[in-house]
């Protein structure tokens, strides 16, 4: 969430600079160009992360058959079934 906010703020608050080939942010220039570029970056990173998450989960689920615990273990609680301890009395 912090990275998204940082990217978004660049599109809002960046000052235009003659040394670089970009316009300033929305609040300094009134132009939504940089904000649009930053929003496009946020969307691209979101889809890239989602695709890689699905890929890693699929590969993991193929080679490791017990990615999830059984429904009985979920009801009992993993503290008891995995560690033989009671977390809350």
Commentary on this structure:
It is a single chain. The chain has 89 residues and is mainly α. Helix content is 66%, strand content 0%. It contains five helices and no strands. It has helices at residues 2-13, 26-29, 33-63, 71-76, 78-83. It is elongated, with a radius of gyration of 23 Å. The mean pLDDT is 87.
Comma- or semicolon-separated keywords:
89 residues; 5 helices; mainly alpha; elongated; 66% helix
Describe this structure in a few short sentences.
With 89 residues, the chain is mainly alpha-helical.
Give a quick account of the main beta sheet: strands, pairing sense, barrel closure: none
- Percent of residues in helices comes to 55-70%
The helix/strand series, from N terminus to C terminus, equals: HHHHH
Low-confidence stretches: none
**Category from helices, strands and their pairing:** mainly alpha
The strand count comes to: 0
For the record, give the distance between the C-alpha atoms at the N and C termini, rounded to a whole number. Answer: 35 Å
Beta-strand fraction estimate: under 5%
Shape: elongated
**Mind telling me the C-alpha Rg?**
23 Å
Tally of contiguous helical segments = 5
Mean pLDDT: 87
Outline the fold blueprint.
Layout: H1 2-13, H2 26-29, H3 33-63, H4 71-76, H5 78-83
Helix pairs in contact: 1-3
